[in-house]
Amino acid sequence: MVWSGGEAEPVCTPPHDISGREFGTYLPKGPGADFLLSLMEESQKILPGHPVNQNRILMQKPPATSIWLWGQGRRPSFPKFYDRYQLHGGIISAVDLLKGIGIYLGFEVINVPGATGYFDTNYSGKADYALRALEHLDFMFIHIEAPDEAGHNGDIQAKIQAVEDVDRLVVGKIMEGLKDFPNHHIMVLPDHFTPISVRTHTNEPVPFCIYSTDGFPSVESRAEHFDEQTAHVSGFVFSNGEELMNFFLKKEKAEPS
């Protein structure tokens, strides 16, 4: 939702932070909250007769009963990716937030048929479209939401399956396809943790794995596993994302802090 001239200060709670709780105490508060609440109440009058909900009821799925507004903020301003790195980039994601960031970075937004942002997403399609895009782009960012959704649901089996699907159908397929590119780098990492135990995001450094055809000589150790424990004991940590990106793209000298 775009609210022209609206308030950016109301307190709105992400729904994935309150899974299984009574929602009444988490409704919008602060400046502009009354307007947001009025929209939510109006949506409750419209949604019961919406064709999507009627179809969901026929399929014995729970209908949507209300919109839930959250994640508010003002339009950001930051340099284009090309201006910073002299690379033309693209983004593949089924999440509008990520697509928006990509637009601000000047990325080409690539829409993949069947990409849903859930467990049934088109994993292989994301890999295929990314490899095809690299025929005219220098850099591709691929985002897969399924492991995060499994964490929010508290579903350990779904999370294992999602990680395995990402590994086999996206990372594996791209690694195979990149053999056609004589010089390339690939980095795999989560943007945050979503532990099954808490079902929401936690704020701690995430592991990353980098492969390059010409190596990273400044890295003294090589890990045999890609997991949280191995990353934690490596002592190889960057304090912010820009440092990691500089290191990954070898655009300037960057060492871990």
Describe this structure in words.
By secondary structure, the protein is mainly alpha-helical. It has 2 domains: 1-74, no CATH class; 81-249, Alkaline Phosphatase, subunit A (3-Layer(aba) Sandwich). Helix content is 37%, strand content 7%. It is built from 9 helices and 5 strands, in the order αααβαβαβααββαα. The chain has helices spanning 33-46, 51-58, 81-85, 96-105, 123-133, 146-153, 156-177, 228-234, 241-249, and strands spanning 89-92, 108-109, 139-142, 185-188, 209-212. A 3-stranded parallel beta sheet has the order 2-1-3, sandwiched between helices. Helix 4 (96-105) links the parallel strand 1 (89-92) and strand 2. The protein is globular and about 60 Å long. The two termini are 39 Å apart. The relative contact order is 0.08. The mean pLDDT is 91.
